[in-house]
């Protein structure tokens, strides 16, 4: 009998009469929860679990228009579009031959794009569930839709950024340095994009002219590869994060660095002995608050730093047990969400630095997550081959 059959049979067992069960109680406890690693409780706070992936699930996006559909991509070379309310599959984005690491809906939810590591990008029309365009580039680093148009931007390991009109496929390339374009973001005006590179440089591109407006390198750039970029709501400020543990605030109009946020190590690290790994730290994710002059930076060592932009100072340090993978701000409040390598999603009040709540359910690290517009649900993807939907609406907010 399968696990499901057993589960059905279990439902008919009456556990009320506990007295009689006592002698066997120990036998129950010795059975390990399979797949639950040490320290990861078997508690599951999620409402819906999507389990069609057969390997780690790397990415998730919600459709911007209705927030009712999710797209997930994974190490199993598969991407699926499914309903958030019940985990029901809408269609599979088939044909990838490598891990699907990027997936997202166009601004109006008409199209969904999926991209795999080897650089095959496919676009599907959501209502018709059919592929309308595909293209192959070099090894894919990141991909994102234009905020107002059916235009797709992607960065590749050869240093190029590509821009296509969908579905016509009209194409433009932006040549960076001869090293991977590690992260990128289209600015809210839709006319410029900021791209970060492995050599520590950052460029602001004019999308229409195809020219580079500003280049930050040397002292203005980072000492190590860029890992993430973000902009504030009006696009006037850009923030870049890097393996060098610095986050830089940049004026997007002038290309000048406004300030640098450096994370001081809590304790001096002992020199590593033979064969020992030096504990590494880096900026993994960052973002701006829409309602207060605050920015959040998440580090691999588990620190969530809330910076005050008006005073350019550290406001709060929120410590996690393990590394932060990604952070997102709520659209209309000073609440920041983090997901981490310990498999939990946490909500933090950036004004007080206090944790509001924590949600568990994954038996491995969370690799990506998305929050819907009214901040009532969070969709997570994990190394445990699953995507989960959590209801996070708090009555007091």
From TrEMBL:
A Pfam family of this chain: WD40
Signal peptide boundaries: none
Keywords: Cytoplasm, Repeat, WD repeat
Compartment(s) where it occurs, according to its Swiss-Prot or TrEMBL record: Cytoplasm
Subcellular location, principal: cytoplasm
WD repeat coordinates: 50-92, 93-134, 188-215, 317-358
InterPro entries per UniProt: Apc4-like_WD40_dom, Quinoprotein_ADH-like_sf, WD40/YVTN_repeat-like_dom_sf, WD40_repeat_CS, WD40_rpt, WD_repeat_multifunction
Source species, domain of life: Eukaryota
Keyword Repeat: yes
SUPFAM superfamilies on file: Quinoprotein alcohol dehydrogenase-like
Location of region: Disordered: 1-46
GO cellular component, as recorded: cytosol
Residues in Anaphase-promoting complex subunit 4-like WD40 domain copies: 288-366
Function noted in UniProt: Plays a role in angiogenesis and cell migration. In smooth muscle cell migration, may act through the RhoA pathway.
Protein name: Angio-associated migratory cell protein
UniProt organism field: Nyctibius grandis (Great potoo)
Protein's gene: Aamp
């Amino acid at each position: 009998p399968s696990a499901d059959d057993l589960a059905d049979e279990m439902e008919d067992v009456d556990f009320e009469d506990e007295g009689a069960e006592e002698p066997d109680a120990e036998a129950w406890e010795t059975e390990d929860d399979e797949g639950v690693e040490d320290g990861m409780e078997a508690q599951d706070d999620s409402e819906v679990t999507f389990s069609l992936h057969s390997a780690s699930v790397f990415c998730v996006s919600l459709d911007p228009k209705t927030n009712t559909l999710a797209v997930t991509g994974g190490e199993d070379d598969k991407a699926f579009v499914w309903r958030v309310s019940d985990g029901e599959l809408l269609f599979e984005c088939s044909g990838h031959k490598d891990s699907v690491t990027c997936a997202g809906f166009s601004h109006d939810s008409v199209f969904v794009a999926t991209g795999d590591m080897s650089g095959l990008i496919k676009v599907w029309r959501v209502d018709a569930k059919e592929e309308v365009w595909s293209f192959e580039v070099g090894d894919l680093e990141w991909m994102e839709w234009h905020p107002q148009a059916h235009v797709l931007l992607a960065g590749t390991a050869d240093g190029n950024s590509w821009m296509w009109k969908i579905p016509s496929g009209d194409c433009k390339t932006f040549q960076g340095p001869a090293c991977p374009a590690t992260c990128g973001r289209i600015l809210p005006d839709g006319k410029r994009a900021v791209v970060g590179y492995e050599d520590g440089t950052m460029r602001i591109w004019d999308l229409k002219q195809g020219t580079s407006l500003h280049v930050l390198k040397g002292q203005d750039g980072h000492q190590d590869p860029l890992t993430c970029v973000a902009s504030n709501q009006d696009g006037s400020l850009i923030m870049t994060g890097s393996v060098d543990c610095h986050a830089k605030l940049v004026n997007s109009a002038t290309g000048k660095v406004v300030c640098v946020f450096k994370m001081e190590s809590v304790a001096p690290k002992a020199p590593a002995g033979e064969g020992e790994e030096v504990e590494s730290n880096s900026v993994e994710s960052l973002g701006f608050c829409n309602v207060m002059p605050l920015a959040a930076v998440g580090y691999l060592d588990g620190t969530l730093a809330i910076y005050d932009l008006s005073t350019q100072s550290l406001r709060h340090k929120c410590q996690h047990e393990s590394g932060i993978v990604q952070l997102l701000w709520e659209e209309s409040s000073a609440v920041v969400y983090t997901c981490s390598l310990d498999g939990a999603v946490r909500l933090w009040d950036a004004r007080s630095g206090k944790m509001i709540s924590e949600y568990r359910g994954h038996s491995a690290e969370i690799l990506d997550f998305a929050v819907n517009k009214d901040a009532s649900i969070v969709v997570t993807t994990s190394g445990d081959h699953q995507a989960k939907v959590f209801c996070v609406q708090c009555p007091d907010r």
